[in-house]
Amino acid sequence: MHLAAEDLSTLRADAQDQLPEVVALRHALHRVPELGLDLPLTQRLVLDALAPLGLEVAPGDGMSSVVAVLRGARPGPAVLLRGDMDALPVTEDTAEPFASEHPGVMHACGHDLHTAGMVGAARLLAARRERLAGSVVFMFQPGEEGPGGAEPMIADGVLDAAGERVVGAYGLHVMSSVLPTGLVAGRPGTILAAADSVRVTVHGRGGHGSMPHLALDPVPVAAEIVLALQAMVTRQFDAFDPVVVTVGRIAAGTADNVISSSAVIDATVRTFSEAVHHRVPDRLRRVCEGVAAAHGLTVTVDYQPGYPVTVNRPEENDRARELTTGLFGERAWLDAPQPIAGAEDFSYVLEQVPGVYLGLGATPPGADPVTAAYNHSPQARFADEALAVGPAVLAALAWDRLAQG
Ligand SMILES: [Zn+2]
């Protein structure tokens, strides 16, 4: 850690002082949630909020991203802060006074806090421009919930937006339960899973339910595949580098006495290391083809890789812990005992740039972190007070990394 205790205490105080403005922006964003890559109202609010800060601002071309670059007064490397901006197709059921005005769309994952918090971090850092040795790239990203905004932003050059490749990248995610408000959680190594999806179609031959020997019944084969996949998980993969396969949907047939000509299995696959992530598709295909072949049927396996594993650099996680406890005290940090099985497209950034991704508690006042509605719930509510913490932590990570040279 390179920042002095005094730097951290003024950062903490300034984050608290600006809280009303950052919260007002969060509420404005929350009212107009938008989906996917097309977030024009959100983008407009971000551009307006950044306008007074004197950054180099570039709205996305073909998607509603915003890339802003803050130039410090002194030369030095570049670092990146990232906040995602998109909402979910959820009908809000919170009774918040700033609830969604867009029917069927809600900031149920707290990305409104990420967006407003990034503006908050930009304000804190812009006010310290004279002391910054280098540049900060602010990556306001659409499409995290799908179809993915990080990859196209990387393709458009966000990692080089300051004129050189960034040397550190930082982001966080708020949680409406589990963690008490203001608690920051991190861990070295894997913090989030990779999430893939797979559709297995079992091809049989339809017939009369009374004479299955004249048909090729895909239903028992599909059932066997479902169970064989669970055996694959426990017999072919290390229990300490696990795989989760969940068949969320299975479909076949039209009537009890009709043998269907096909059956469809849809599953999600979660993995926690890239080594295992890469091994699953072939193993899964082998199990499906093998079970089908044993009964004289065939399968088509459509494996769709999703976001990769999100991996924190140990030294960056250590720095995040030092800075967080320096800002808010020892009790503000939690060493997360294990990763979360969700997935994130910030993983694409961390594949290329060392950095860290953190969890931030935002359980609403009066609610119990154990029972409060979790992210993606129509009842999920997020504590505004988390916005006194997140922006300070992000700003500290960026400033301190630049101070390392
Ligand atoms: Zn999210």
Task: Kindly describe this structure.
The protein has an eight-stranded mixed sheet, sandwiched between helices. It has a four-stranded antiparallel sheet with strand order 10-12-8-13, covered by helices on one side. A two-stranded antiparallel sheet has the order 7-14. By secondary structure, the chain is of the alpha/beta class. A hairpin with a 6-residue loop joins β1 and β2 (66-71). It folds into two domains: 5-188 and 311-404, Aminopeptidase (3-Layer(aba) Sandwich), CATH 3.40.630.10; 194-304, Alpha-Beta Plaits (2-Layer Sandwich). The longest helix is centred in the last third of the chain and has 21 residues, at 274-294. It is 33% helix and 24% strand.
Structurally, the number of domains stands at 2
Rg, please?
A: 24 Å
What share of the residues lie within helices? Answer: 25-40%
Structural class of the secondary elements? alpha/beta
Provide the spatial order of strands within the biggest beta sheet.
1-2-4-3-5-16-6-15
Could you outline the blueprint of secondary structure elements for this entry?
Blueprint: H1 5-17, H2 19-31, H3 40-50, E1 56-59, E2 66-71, E3 74-84, H4 111-126, E4 133-141, H5 150-155, E5 168-175, E6 184-186, E7 189-192, E8 194-203, E9 207-208, H6 218-236, E10 243-252, E11 258-259, E12 262-271, H7 274-294, E13 298-304, E14 310-312, H8 314-328, E15 333-335, H9 346-352, E16 355-361, H10 390-403
Parallel strand pairs: 3-4, 3-5, 5-16, 6-15
Antiparallel strand pairs: 1-2, 2-4, 6-16, 7-14, 8-12, 8-13, 9-11, 10-12
The structure holds zinc ion (ZN).
Zinc ion binds at residues 109, 111, 144, 173.
